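Protocol step 4 of 6: record predicted structures for both targets in the notebook before any analysis. Target 1:
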Amino acid sequence: MKKIAFFNYTMIATACFLAIFSITLFSCEDEDKDIFNVFELGGFVRFETPFPTVVNIASLAEAANITVTNVLEAPDGNVASYSIEASAMVAGEEYGPVAFGETVTSFPANLTITMSDLASALGFDIADVGFADTFSFTGTAVNDKGIVYKGNDRQTFTEEDGVKGGNNSSDLLDETGYRNAFEFSFAIPCPPNNNPISGDWTIDMTDLFGDGWDGAFVTVEIDGSTTDYTIPATDAATHVFNVPSGTGVLRISYTSGSWEEEHVYTITNPDGVEFGPFGPEPGTCPEYTSP
């Protein structure tokens, strides 16, 4: 008797489950079968060619004539408007962000950035522009449905609020394969040492606390090929690099990290002439050419 009751209970439960499953199945079939395939094109603007991350000049007298040009594209054909904000770090002072240039409403469109236009918009003196100064841009696009797409705001550093803004790391900004026009920038690199002395050059690095350079490093560029040098996790390091005979350009620059008051280094050329010490708190562009 118990077996018959159990069998009946099992049959009833199975029938109920199948009925519920069937209702659910037919209900799903009655609705849109493509519910996971609803896409809309965003408002995307890119450059025709990669935006230059550095603009080389031989002397500061050329800074006033800096001009960067490119072509803006909206590959999806649905951008109603595009505008730019500019900011800069000139002679250690922050400027911006402020609106820069005209609003673009048709594509493709030519983009021209001149140093005189930047100075006028941001309020700095062109005579103050120097090596290692940077100029950054944030783009905003509005698509044909009124949806706004914008790059992250530039970081600002103040005693009151620390760090504000989003990602503007160099690995994003200098990615040549991703020609986005939402976050881009260029810098004036350190001056080159043209036709440098060939042979072995030496960089002697010191960390006054003894725990490495906290993310800081020195970059050596020899005819376009770059190598970074640092102190990994100790109080000192010595690096020797060779400048081959016939080298046209040697360029040395410093990139800061944390605890800059601990970082000191010197540069010695193949003739035994020592330059520095640079630091604590080294500047971006060391002076390492003989008078």
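Target 2:
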Amino acid sequence: MNQEPSIIELEHTIGFSGKIPKSVHVHSNGEDFLYISGACIVVTNLMNPHKQHFLRGHDNQISCLALSNNGLLVASGQIGDNSDVIIWDFEKKKPKFRLSEHDYEVVVVQFSHNDQLLFSCGNAQDKKLFVWDTSNGYIVASCIIFPEKITTMRWGGYAKDIKLRDTAKYQFATAGNKQICLWKLDSKTGQIEHEFINTGSVIREYKCLEYSKNREDYLFAGTTSGDFLCFQIKNKLLICVITVAALGVQSIQAININHIIVGCGNGQVNLYKTNDNQIDSVASTQLFGSVNSISCMVSGQETMCATDKGFIYRVRNDNLQKVLHCENHTDSVLFLAYPPGISDKFASCSEDGSIRLWNIEQDYLVVSRCFASNAGHPLCLTHNDEIVLSGWQDGKIRMFNSENGNLIWQIDNAHKGGVQSICLGKNLKFFCSGGLEGEVRVWEMRSREMISHLKEHTHKVSKVKLIGDQDAHVLSSSKDRACKFIYYSFLIFLLVLCWDLKNEKRINAHIQRMGGINSFDTTQDHQIAITTGQDRQITYWNLNQSNPTKIIHTSKDNKADDECMCLHLSNNGKYFATGGSQQVVKIWEFSTGKLVGEGKGHSGTINTVCFSFDDKQIISGGCDGNIFVWNIFD
């Protein structure tokens, strides 16, 4: 288990943290755009989605992202115990400075207009504001955050003197706690001055700020009330309040000297013209999801708009005509599956409430998507080229059309507490489901009637699998535990049960000590099963015997904590893949139990792995909301 990884290579990643403000930035080279994906920054070519680079240096969710105006530097901050700010060298794709002064969470990072300074501030617990020198990583100025929290920030240009001439002082604006504050910074002395803007009777919670393109005329402030305020910079006066749309103004971007684009929580995007203290609406369009990020392309002709639903659009600046550029999951990916006999398409389900069907050959295009209102989120699925069969958090089983994502039918009250696992028989006449309370149920496809109810598990059924030529048997695993109090500790037993469906009886039980079974798989002849779970081990079983035939540890260091959450055996039976809490996809040789490859890239626990039908690729999904496509070299 000490050999170097050799047979796995990252091909592509899908995933976007769209709920974070300003999580997408178009690079000034006109070729790339950057976005947050869990604890990773992804740099993707605008024309070729296969051309990706990854900036990895954070150990928790990235909470803010900024790109310098010249495109040479990238800055990012994260949440958690190690709430560092990292300044990246874009060309080298490596960290340049790591700034470790914040605690809890970094809320905002932003480069100054000349890229010489970087602003960062923490959340209400951190209460710290810093300005950094981007040439050496040193602190230029710092203070305790006032007001108590800052939700958004924008740099202006240089502050003006009484004759409206540039001074050596920088200016920037912050918003939070229903107040807007203007700051002046002397970068040579580190002295900071601030004053609040008087908004009179207009009291708002602010979501975003933006200066006009010349940084001299106006300051715009988007609010949770669905309007934005416009201030004249030279005299700090509120000149107008423009009502836009419901669910708040989430983002504002100045695209030229007298035009701004405004994105709203209801998906509406508006184009406004500013002239002589007057603001007029020019055009409007509708996107899917809250528009949390707007970034103008260097050409000035297009803008990239991203939503909290994972959709990234290219929008023309003159008339707001839109084209969907890509889409992603925005929350934990729970399950992935290829259809039988197909290697260029797969399906995914996520805690963001969606099921998506992807086509690898068409640049990872989503060919259809499935949603259900007021159903929670999907927990599991199985599918072929015609239908998607899925289990949901609300306890219902739903079937969708694979081509258009339309709901075909649903079974109400299939399992109390949620349908945790589901599988489809080879003959397509039956399907099997497992529930939160330990039930295993078999259903007739045509009538959708329950034909078998098997109850011996006492905890969540983690997986079910129909086996045998006629789907006559089902294998189920669970996190059951029978406890005995010995030496002030628990002795825990876990079960893999094999059922005879014809007679509705259990044929065999395989008991694993110390921890729940999270996943299993079987060989093609259904003679051998491998299980993995909370015991941090991989166990081989002969289904005709009650005791395990082989046990291997999931970590090189047996003391390391790597709980495997998922396991899948290749179709040729040569390898199996696992993923879990160490956030690494591991490839094992089935016959020897030898670790032959590791795929690193996820920034959260891996929930699901799956081999393609031709065994040339593996897909993995995790709590970071990412789907990784890996190439396998045999």
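Step 5 preliminary note on target 2. The chain has two domains: 16-322, 333-632. The domain at 16-322 is CATH 2.130.10.10 (Methylamine Dehydrogenase; Chain H).
Proceed to step 6 after PI sign-off.
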